[in-house]
Amino acid sequence: MEYNGEAITKVRARELYNEADQKVLNTAFINTEIKNAEKHIQRADAVTGKLTERANRNAEELDDCQHLADRMSERSERIQRIIADVKSANKTDGTQADSNP
């Protein structure tokens, strides 16, 4: 038999068979690696989705905390103004003792 002008001997036929067999094994290994990679990607995608959901919940909680802190700050400012007004009124009326600044 001839293949591309080269006489194929039993040895050469065996070499070609071994090469083909190795290519089949390599292809099977590559396919297995691809399947494993796909599984890892799916897991990573699931984890990414969960982390995104958690980050969104954390952002909402942070917003709630910021609104609460803002309200408390406003309330504190109002209380400080009331205290300042009371002190000022007491000084004007002379009801605050000299020993209590």
Helix/strand layout:
Blueprint: E1 2-3, E2 6-7, H1 10-93
Antiparallel strand pairs: 1-2
Question: What does the model show?
Answer:
The protein is mainly alpha-helical. The protein is built from 1 helix and 2 strands. It has one helix at 10-93, and strands at 2-3, 6-7. Strand 1 and strand 2 (6-7) form a beta hairpin. The longest helix has 84 residues, at 10-93. The termini are far apart. The relative contact order is 0.04. The mean pLDDT is 86.
Indicate the low-confidence ranges by residue numbers: none
Strand order of the largest sheet: 1-2
Helix/strand class:
mainly alpha
Envelope shape:
rod-shaped
The span between the termini is: 116 Å
β-strand percent reads under 5%
Q: State the order of secondary-structure elements, H for helix, E for strand.
A: EEH
> Could you tell me the radius of gyration in angstroms?
41 Å
Number of helices: 1
Mean pLDDT: 86
Main sheet overview: 2 strands, antiparallel
Share of helical residues: over 70%
- Count of DSSP E strands? 2
